[in-house]
Design brief:
globular; CoA-Trfase_III_dom3_sf; formyl-coa transferase, domain 3; CoA-Trfase_III_dom_1_sf; transferase; Rossmann fold; six-stranded parallel beta sheet; alpha/beta; 2 domains; 14 helices; transferase activity; Crotonobetainyl-CoA:carnitine CoA-transferase CaiB-like acyl-CoA transferase
Length: 377
Amino acid sequence: MVNRPLSGIRVLDFSTLLPGPLAGLILAEAGAEVIKVERPEGEEIRRFVPRWGDDSIHFALLNRGKRSVTVDLKDPGAAARLEPLIRDCDVLIEQFRPGVMSRLGLDYERVRAIRPDIVYCSITGYGQSGPKSQVAGHDLNYIAETGLLALSHGSAAHQVIPPALVADIGGGTMPTVLNILLALIGRQRTGEGAYIDIAMSDAMFTYAWWAYGMGHAFGDWPGNGDSLLSGGSPRYQIYPTRDGRFVAVAALEQKFWDELCDLIGLERRLRDDSVDPAATIAAMRAIFGNRSSEDWAAVFEGRDCATNVVRTLAEAAKDPHFLERGLFDHVLENQAGQRIPALVVPVAPQFRGPAATPGRAPTLGADNDLLDGSVRQ
């Protein structure tokens, strides 16, 4: 018997693109009924490319198992039309700039007048207050504004764009899910709802924990690629191999470092990497560049050295370890019946629905009957 802990929780989701929709997906995977409120033409990510069936693959991945209603929020009667849903929902998520929901007649105070114990969550780049609250931005802007990007952005000749949307997911999605769950627990105890102000930029300081510790405690503010975890150490570094691939070294602990040095035959005089880190890095680059990634993978196999070959996404998706863990067992299906693995979400398997049951993203306005006050699933 699957224990889906959020069964019976209804979420009204006004958000678009990534942070809010991914938060809604996580809640839905844990059993919540998530209802997307979309403009009559649908949210913009539906029309992104590449298409997979009727909608974009991005929309399909983020909205598996949700429902959809369409409302023109600029219509004077929109707020009244949404009242039946608001009255029967537990959580509301919105991702507009500060002040927009108020202009639409759907701000926290007015929603709370309809549903007093509502958990109302607003997601923005810089929060509901402060000088930057109305500033537009995306992930790259938020990590740049908070100093996180300055820790490792490459050189003037070769800038590095981070591969993960840290602000969107780590500053938007995850804090949203965490705080909604905390608010729901609080509501169980007190009967009171909550207003939650999530600023994607805020959590970027959390991600720079080590750098801010050095700066605040010792006045030693790390720069671009010059610290232990950002490229300044031979022990935490990416090295190219002879065949154009890369090796990821994270041998921070001395036992891992000693093992790695023995395996690659690093000169004794360079093993104390505190003496001349640049010289040690240069020597290791030369060593790793002399052999192929396949050779190095064989060298590291079964050895405790916290070092491995950088795999492609395609290789990782076929890795026996991740397959055995069941990460790709859940199924996403489009309107044509095509199936692919659903997006991996950080919800424990025992809290999700059966993996073998395919889930679909909702067709636009498929659940407009809910606007008449239809009962929950």
